[in-house]
Specification:
The complex is a heterodimer of chains A (about 450) and B (about 625).
Chain A: H1 2-10, H2 20-32, H3 44-54, H4 67-76, H5 83-86, H6 94-103, H7 116-130, H8 139-149, E1 155-158, H9 170-179, H10 181-188, H11 198-201, E2 209-212, H12 232-244, E3 250-253, H13 260-270, E4 278-280, H14 288-299, E5 305-307, H15 315-327, E6 333-335, H16 342-355, E7 361-363, H17 371-383, E8 389-391, H18 398-411, E9 417-419, H19 427-446
Parallel strand pairs in A: 1-2, 2-3, 3-4, 4-5, 5-6, 6-7, 7-8, 8-9
Helix pairs in contact in A: 3-4, 4-6, 6-7, 7-8, 9-10, 12-13, 13-14, 14-15, 15-16, 16-17, 17-18, 18-19
Chain B: H1 2-85, H2 89-362, H3 373-376, H4 385-389, H5 393-404, H6 412-431, H7 435-448, H8 454-460, H9 465-480, H10 487-506, H11 515-519, H12 523-549, H13 559-570, H14 575-624
Helix pairs in contact in B: 1-2, 5-6, 5-13, 7-9, 7-10, 10-12
The chains are: A alpha/beta (about 450), B mainly alpha (about 625).
Protein name (chain A): T-complex-associated-testis-expressed 1
Main location (chain A): cytoplasm
Pfam family, one (chain A): LRR_6
């Protein structure tokens, strides 16, 4: 339309149409205009699509368009359109890429299964939850999002959960706080609840991964201990929510100050979960009782990956886990870094591995284990062919342990990673072990 | 081959070396990065151990402290309990002092502990800050190292790639040159071989050519011989073949003819069938048409019958009307007649009275009364049945006229007798109208009248006489406007006419003359006679028409008779009398003039007498006076 108009505008103003003859002349003039080109005239379908883009909300013919036409529209639709219009109409593609790029600078679509739409909705929902203030923000705001994004959200990575806003009289209560903790706990409990996941998780029918950290980012001088912990009610509601979410495969509850009791509550609900494969309780304060609960979970679920690093597990907990490990046949990876298993725990796990043929990755770094554990593990390495990586760094293994490991490794062909740095072992032994590992790596590559 | 294998092995060894180098590099670099983490882990674990130890130490310290303070507190309590027993103030003072000392000791102890703990706290705070800082540094270091790793690795990979490329290129060049030389050598050998082969082929081609030439010549000879033989054979076969062909052709032709005949017959038959069917169709059509037409005609005839009946009825009605009107008219006519006749008789009587007066008084003559015919026939309107009986009303009319104008003579009887005789004559003539007379009349007509055209005569001349006669008669009758049936009438008239003529001319003498001669009338008179006949015929026809139209009329009126009657009435005063009357009028006129004068004078005389009397009176008066 535009070229035609311009061509007309270029004509002398006196030569307006005055009848059929004049019309013909006018047309002739356009044809002789050297700037006139038919290629500049957009096709009617283009014009239609443009008007369609302008008035996308009112029209419902998007499904009937061809792929090229859809791309045309996706490249031109304004990202400011309400989600209720676009969410379930426009498929993954350029439009969502534009939406993402407009909202965030860093967009690594490979993390989201190369789906821009999924990325957009996951990050949107995460943003809404992370800024949710209990008691202030209405849960409706999140629930409104659910029907739009339920089909696209597979992972929720929530890096902070805000607490309710404290009222000015809190200071007085803090004084009370000093006087009686229990009273305060009872009084303060319901108020200090974080976002209740039970209203959301059961509705997200595609959710597979859930990463939650009960903490506040950039709290500054408003720091309070409660901000960085998951309280009892949160734990109960989360446990319920987890039970209702049948599609969940990965649960990561890190840096949330989870203690034994909370672990027990969570594990109780997670027992017999149909799809859970990965569990990550790293950077919490789980003790031996919690470890025992997790060990129970290990026996009654299909967990493949368990990460309990940076907790407070000592030898009783380790023994419980070891007992579960000896019976379990699904666990592939066990991470107990930064605990305090001690030699007893280490030995128990090593003995359990004698009967286990599924575990491939074992991390026992910084666990205060010494020579005896190393010797026990050396036996495992010599015998077991499934173990691929062992990490015993930051443990005082000593000469004997090193030697035992070296000897065991010389017979082994499956271990491709063996980390024994900072463990008081001879350089020679370390290098010889590394040699074996490298050759094993080469074998693995060739195989 | 050895070279290639060696190059391959070299290549593989190089690539292996490079990959190993890369792997080791990667390992070293990752180790450099992870070393930091593990170091941090180790530090963390040691820190925790230390923390735990410190906690334990602290706990022990606190326990010791608590125990010692407990002991001291017990001492104090004991001292207090013992103090109650003491009565002497100095002792009490002393005890109090010691108590106070002990308390201060305890307090000091506590203060010291608090200070220690605070110090420890501070130290640990510092340590925490330091740790944080170090961690941040370590993180930075890790980042740096990771970046370094990436950089160095990419560089290494690039170098390696360029090295491999270079090596490969060199190798390729070497191989290419080697292959080229080899290829050239091979080509050369091949060309030589080819040339040799070409020469050999050429030689062989020459040999074969000469051989082929010889063979060709031989074959040509053989072929020509065979050809001649074959020609002969062929000709013989050809002749036979042609014969066969002719015979087969004949057979075919016959077959075709038969087939054709059958086809033609079939075709004709089918055409006939078609025609029959079409004709049948037409017949059907016509039958339907006929039935329609018949129906239509029946309808129309029915309509026409109805119309006819209606018209008949109408006609009857009209006739009735006419009858009615005729009767009415006759009545009225009679009345009118009587009235007029009465008036006329009155006038006649008047005139006769005047005449008599004139005659008697004026002329002094004797007046004799004239005959008044109407007095004898007072209602001249009388039935005329007698005339109706006449076939020729003309005669009756003449007779009537004669009767009317007969004057005083009584001729009625004679006339009637005459009429009767004529009628009888006519009947007799009618009866006696023989064929001869008719023939004669026809001859007369044909010859004399010249009514027949010349052309017709010319046409008729070749025919027989009788036929000619008939034709002529027909044409002449046609020319006269007469029908065939009128012919006998004409003959009759002519006969009568001659009789009348002879009566007129020669009286009764010629009346008895021979009929034979008399039949032939003077040809000069024929035309006149014919004219008369025609007039009469016309009149008779009109009369006959009238009579036919008024068959039911009771009375037949004849205006001519009436006219005579009325004329007789009007001529009641004769010419002489009229002259006489004129003269009498003249004289009377003169007499009237004299009389008028006398009357005038009489009036004068009267006036004079009156004057005279008046004057006498005056005189008397005067005299009296």
């Amino acid at each position: 339309m535009a070229p035609a108009l311009s061509a007309r505008e270029k004509e002398p103003p006196g030569s307006g149409p005055k009848g059929p003859d004049d019309c013909r002349r006018l047309r002739r003039i356009i044809a002789e205009d050297p700037l006139w080109s038919l290629a500049l005239v957009p096709s009617l379908s283009h014009l239609c699509l443009k008007s369609f883009v302008r008035d996308f909300e009112g029209l419902t013919v998007y499904e009937q368009l061809s792929n090229t036409e859809r791309e045309f529209i996706q490249e031109r639709l304004p990202p400011s359109l309400p989600l209720s219009v676009t969410a379930n109409v426009i498929e993954d593609g350029v439009y969502w890429k534009r939406c993402c790029k407009q909202q965030w600078d860093l967009c690594d679509v490979s993390r989201y299964g190369d789906s821009w739409k999924r990325m957009f909705f996951e990050r949107c929902l995460e943003g809404v939850i992370e800024l949710f203030i209990p008691g202030v923000t209405e849960p409706k705001k999140i629930l409104e999002m659910v029907p739009l994004c339920e089909n696209y959200v597979k992972r929720l990575d929530i890096s902070q959960l805000l607490t309710p806003i404290r009222e000015p009289k809190k200071e007085e209560e803090e004084e009370d706080n000093v006087l009686g903790l229990e009273n305060d706990d009872e009084y303060d409990g319901p108020q200090m609840n974080h976002f209740d996941f039970s209203i959301l998780l059961e509705k997200l029918i595609c959710l597979e991964e859930l990463h939650v950290a009960y903490r506040v980012k950039q709290c500054g001088l408003n720091y309070e201990g409660r901000m960085f912990e998951m309280n009892y009610k949160d734990c109960v509601s989360l446990a319920k929510a987890l039970k209702s979410c049948k599609t969940l495969k990965l649960l990561r509850l890190h840096q949330s100050n989870i203690d034994d009791m909370k672990v027990q509550i969570l594990v109780k609900q997670l027992l017999g979960h149909p799809s859970l494969k990965e569990l990550d309780f790293s950077h919490n304060v789980i003790g031996d009782v919690g470890a025992g609960a997790v060990a129970k979970l290990l026996t009654k679920s299909k967990l493949e990956v368990l990460n309990m690093c940076d907790n407070e597990i000592t030898d009783p907990g380790a023994k419980a886990i070891a007992q579960a490990l000896s019976k379990n046949s699904t666990l592939v990876s066990l991470n107990l870094r930064l605990n305090r298993l001690g030699d007893e725990g280490g030995r128990a796990i090593a003995e359990a591995l004698m009967n286990n043929i599924t575990l491939r990755h074992l991390h026992l770094g910084a666990n205060e284990v010494t020579g005896p554990t190393a010797i026990a593990l050396a036996k495992v390495i010599a015998q077991n062919n499934t173990l691929k990586s062992i990490n015993l760094s930051c443990n005082n293994l000593g000469e004997d342990g090193g030697k035992a490991l070296e000897e065991a490794m010389s017979h082994n062909t499956s271990v491709t990673e063996c980390d024994i740095r900072l463990s008081e072992v001879d350089e020679q032994i370390v290098s010889s072990i590394n040699q074996v590992v490298w050759t094993n790596q080469g074998l693995g590559q060739k195989g | 081959m050895d070279e290639a294998s060696s190059s391959k092995t070299m290549n593989s060894s190089i690539s292996e070396m490079s990959t190993q180098r890369m792997i080791s590099m990667q390992r070293d670099l990752t180790a450099a990065v992870t070393n930091i983490q593990t170091a941090a882990d180790a530090r963390e674990s040691t820190r925790r151990k230390e923390l735990q130890e410190a906690r334990q130490r602290r706990l022990e310290l606190l326990e010791d402290n608590a125990r010692s303070s407990q002991n001291k507190a017990e001492e104090i309590f004991e001292a207090l309990s013992s103090m109650k027993e003491k009565v002497i103030p100095q002792e009490l003072q002393e005890a109090l002092n010691t108590q106070q000392n002990i308390c201060t000791l305890v307090l000091e102890d506590k203060d010291k502990l608090i200070n220690d703990l605070q110090k420890e706290l501070k130290v640990s705070d510092d340590r925490f800050v330091k740790d944080l800082r170090r961690m941040a540094e370590e993180l930075d270091l890790m980042k740096e190292r990771m970046e370094d790793q990436i950089k160095t690795l990419t560089e290494a990979y690039r170098e390696e790639m360029s090295g491999v490329e270079r090596f490969c290129l060199q190798e390729i060049e070497v191989l290419v040159t080697k292959d080229k030389s080899e290829w050239e050598n091979h080509m050369k050998e091949l060309w030589d071989q080819e040339l040799e082969r070409l020469e050999q082929r050429k030689e062989k081609v020459g040999e074969y050519e000469t051989k082929i030439h010889h063979l060709m010549l031989d074959n040509m000879d053989k072929e020509s011989i065979i050809k001649i033989e074959q020609d002969a054979n062929f000709q013989a076969l050809d002749v036979e073949n042609q014969k066969m062909k002719a015979s087969t052709m004949l057979m075919n032709l016959q077959q075709i003819k038969q087939k054709n005949n059958v086809d033609v017959h079939n075709f004709n038959l089918s055409q006939m069938y078609e025609r029959i069917s079409s004709l049948q169709m037409e017949i059907k059509k016509l039958v339907t048409k006929f039935s329609n037409q018949a129906k239509y005609l029946r309808d129309t005839s029915h309509h026409l019958k109805k119309d006819y009946k209606r018209i008949l009825e109408q006609h009857e009605r009209v006739q009735k009307k006419i009858k009615h009107f005729a009767v009415a008219d006759a009545g009225r006519f009679k009345e009118m007649w009587r009235m007029v006749e009465a008036e006329v008789t009155l006038l006649v009587e008047k005139a006769l009275a005047i005449d008599s007066e004139i005659c008697v008084k004026h002329l002094g003559l004797a007046w004799d009364q004239p005959v008044l015919p109407f007095r004898e026939l007072p209602g001249s309107i009388r039935p005329k049945q007698q005339t109706n009986t006449d076939l020729h009303p003309q005669l009756a009319q003449t007779q009537q006229a004669l009767q009317c104008s007969g004057g005083a003579e009584d001729t009625s009887d004679g006339a009637s007798s005459e009429a009767e005789t004529t009628a009888g004559d006519q009947e007799g003539s009618d009866a006696g109208l023989e064929e001869e007379t008719l023939v004669a009349v026809s001859h007369l007509l044909c010859d004399a009248t010249g009514l027949i055209q010349e052309s017709l005569l010319m046409l008729l001349s070749p025919l027989e006489e009788d036929v000619q006669m008939a034709m002529k008669l027909g044409s002449s009758l046609y020319a006269l406007g007469l029908a065939d049936k009128d012919f006998p009438k004409l003959a009759h008239f002519l006969l009568k006419y001659r009789q009348e003529q002879s009566e007129d001319v020669s009286g009764e003498l010629s009346a008895s003359s021979d009929q034979e001669e008399a039949l032939i009338i003077n040809p000069n008179q024929v035309l006149i006679a014919l004219k008369g006949f025609l007039q009469q015929h016309k009149g008779s026809r009109e009369n006959s028409d009238q009579s036919q139209s008024s068959v039911l009329q009771t009375e037949l009126r004849d205006s001519s008779a009436d006219r005579v009657y009325w004329e007789s009435l009007s001529n009641i005063i004769t010419e002489d009398k009229v002259r006489l009357w004129e003269a009498a009028e003249e004289s009377l006129q003169q007499h009237l003039v004299v009389l008028t004068e006398i009357s005038e004078l009489d009036i004068e005389k009267e006036s004079l007498e009156q004057e005279n009397t008046e004057l006498r009176l005056l005189l008397q008066q005067s005299l009296s006076l």
